[in-house]
Every structure is written in C-alpha cells, then in structure tokens.
Design a protein that fits this description.
Blueprint lengths: L2 H25 L7 H16 L4 H24 L6 H21 L6 H21 L10 H19 L3
Length: 164
C-alpha cells in the first residue's frame, strides 16, 4: 500500500470514528420514536450491562435505565406517539421485574429500600400518566399498558417488601 493511500485510509478511519462517537453521544437522549438512534442507544445499554458482573452494580445501572424507560414512556405519551406506548411500557415493566428478580436472587436486602422508594415514586408518575392519557380515541387502547406497568410495580413492591 502506498503512503498516500495509507494516509487517506487513516483519515477516513478517523472520520468514521468521530461520526460513530457523535452518534453514540447523541443517542443518549433518543426516544423510541427516533427508531434508528434509539436502537443504537439500546444496543449500547445492553452491551454495557453485559460488562457488569457484580449484581449490586448491575442493579444500580438497571435502576438508572429504569429512570430512562419512564422518561421514554412519558415522552411518547406526552408527544402523542401512541404507536410506541406498548413497546415502551413493556420495556419499563420488564426492566422493573428484572431488577426485582436480581435483588431477590442475590439477596441484596440493602438495596430493597432505595428500590422500593424508586418504585413508589414511579408508581405515582405512572398513575398520573395513566390519568393524562386520552382514553376517548377510537382504536387507541394503549392506556391499558400504562395501567399494566403500575399494576406490575405494585407486585414488585410487594415482593421487595417480603425480603427480610
């Protein structure tokens, strides 16, 4: 390979890395209706989660992700992106359940109170979101998934309360 070709390859590589870095940074604020960038965000989150082996650190990171999932769900409802409510609500309740199971499986009793506080706070926000959601739109029954989320949270709160 000629020196000039090698120099051009390096420049293109740097350019691609810069574009990828900017995309990853900008994807952090992506919402489900930004499908391509949101997909990148989710891949990045999953990859990072796989690198965490300590159950306590996994729970802490997952609780941060749960905050993000609630913001995303709120965003799609407030911005009337109703096609994304089901997936957003499922991601939320699945993650809350995984957090609960991880705490139970690893007997992380010291994390139960802070997690219960977070779940109680989210419970109130989900209840408000449920009330806010318009239920008079024909063929739009996605409000039920928000109701499911706060019903699941109640179950997870009960499970965490039973850990002694």
């Amino acid at each position: 390979m000629r020196a000039e070709d090698l120099k051009q390859l390096k420049l293109w590589s740097i350019f691609v890395l810069i574009i990828l870095s900017l995309t990853l940074v900008s994807s952090q604020s992506a919402n489900p209706n930004d499908e391509l960038i949101f997909g990148l965000k989710r891949v990045q989150e999953k990859a990072f989660l796989k690198t965490i082996s300590d159950p306590r650190q996994r729970v802490e990171y997952m609780r941060t992700l749960l905050e993000n999932r609630l913001k995303e769900l709120t965003s799609v409802v407030v911005n009337k992106k109703y096609d994304f409510v089901l997936k957003s609500a499922l991601r939320y309740s699945t993650l809350a359940g995984q957090i609960t199971e991880l705490i139970e499986a690893n007997n992380l009793k010291d994390l139960t109170e802070s997690t219960k506080m977070q779940f109680n706070e989210h419970y109130k926000k989900l209840e408000s979101l449920y009330v806010f959601y318009p239920k008079n739109i024909p063929d739009n029954v996605e409000w039920k998934y928000i109701q499911d989320d706060y019903n699941y949270l109640k179950i997870y709160l009960d499970k965490l309360s039973k850990l002694k």
